[in-house]
Amino acid sequence: MPMQMGFRWYGEGNDQVSLADIKQIPGVTSIVWALHNKQPGEIWEKEEIAQVQKQLEPYGFNMDVVESVNVHDDIKIGLPTRDKYIENYIQTIRNLKDFGVKVICYNFMPIFDWTRTDLFHPIGDGSTALYYQKDMIQDDPKVMADYILKNLNGLTFPGWEPERMARLDELFAAYKPVTKEKLWENLKYFLEKLMPVCRECDIKMAIHMDDPPWDIFGLPRLMVDGPAIDRFLSMVDDPYNCLTLCSGSLNANPENNVASIVRKHCDRIAFAHIRNVKHFPNGDFSEASHRECDGDTGILDILRAYHDCGFEGYIRPDHGRHLWGEGPGTCRPGYGLYDRALGVMYMLGAWDLMEKEKAGK
Ligand code: DNO
Fold it and tell me: Using CA atoms, how far apart are residues 85 and 81, in angstroms rounded to an integer?
């Protein structure tokens, strides 16, 4: 199977980008989807999945990749109630199998998903991008949660469910005993329960990198660098225990060389996110266009590594800048139409050229 190009879509009525728009981007075959109205821990029912299938069908997109089936906090904390939520997760996997789903992207970050301090930061060319100002992430997580929720303009955002954000004190107290080692144990417990079902259903679990890849607000984060990835893959050494290798999440730490991780673990990367990041000397970073020279992530080296390794998984452009009238209220932070479409073309341009070279043409 050749590499498949995907595009993230948040669903009918929940995304300003339409499937008809996406259809006009050359080369996109997979819609990266989710049931965004679902709370972590709930079963995704077949009738609900069938509705998405019905929406995608006329456009000929496949629904092979789900991003994300979110993991309930009780599983991450390791509470006795986790078994009930793992059972629900397993039922969701079984239901997804009936629709041909091949990859489930998820994350194991305590409380928060990705974290930024400015969702629409001007980057100098008239566009805006997601931005992380290091010294703003110190004390009160509530200030940040309020800011993010306000800027989502009522759209759902996985990992930032208002219901969970309203219980932040309670959540922080529950995570208190969860050390980094405990979190590793809880991740292992979760995956070991899932693996037999994944094998039976032929669905790969693909963990997303932690974003940013370091502890925040005193909460431990696991998927932060090469050694952590090595540990994760050998901890549950199963071909269905895979990675969503997110170049931008990892490279927020400039020490992380994503291309070398691709070369080492390509067979366990089920899903590739391509995002470019520009670093500043004080530890701040800004997201950038996919073009290699606009950031520091080494996008072409990464694409070359995937190509050299014969990558046959799914790939998608990740966060883009907000362009040509996109901004607060008119597009989801990081998920406008235009820059991600440009990202697809950049990636396919590089890929097509490498294919041609390989074929000796
Ligand atoms: C951010 C995304 C993440 C990702 C989840 C996976 O834009 O990369 O929200 O979908 O962490 O569970």
Answer: 7
